[in-house]
Hints:
Helix content: 25-40%
Strand content: 25-35%
CATH architecture: 3-Layer(aba) Sandwich
CATH class: Alpha Beta
Oligomer: single chain
Radius of gyration: 16 Å
Largest sheet: 8 strands, mixed
CATH topology: Aminopeptidase
Number of strands: 8
Amino acid sequence: MTSWLGSPTLSGSHIRLRPLRAGDADALAAAVDEKDAFRWTSVPGDAAAAGAYIATAIDDPHRVAFAVIDLRDDAVVGTTSYYDIDFAHRAAAIGYTFYSKRVQGTAVNPEAKLLLLQHAFEASGAVRIVWHTDERNAQSRAAILKLGTTFEGLLRKHRLLPDGTWRTTAQYAMTDDDWPASRARLRARIA
């Protein structure tokens, strides 16, 4: 199903985001190159799990999943998605994001977010974008704040984890009013 946000290919200076496809399973599994770096995130550990992950993403009518391509070598270095897409309220979340250890801390994440936010706010007329992360994931929480978001609070027992425990989720948001200042900060980080 195509959402209000569409399934575009978005290109920047360092990366390209294109719709995730079944043929990305091996590359996506390879991007999970340091398992301990993904302590707070459910990531596929092998090609079969990556194939299932991709199928679930593609089949979800409220999600648009992207492969993140490093333009230096045209390699898939991770994935990110729009999800919880709500056309009536012109809102969505950005998440299901993970990157190869080799590109963490580089321009890849800020540029991916710049491309997604620019498409959502400027091309699609979104008014609100949210992010969710495990309350214990300090690295992700810091990265989300650096985007220019506002911490909105904790959602208790928000997600059931694979081990059967419940996750408390930290929620952050950005509105169309916040976007111009955030866009400037993201462009400066990428430059």
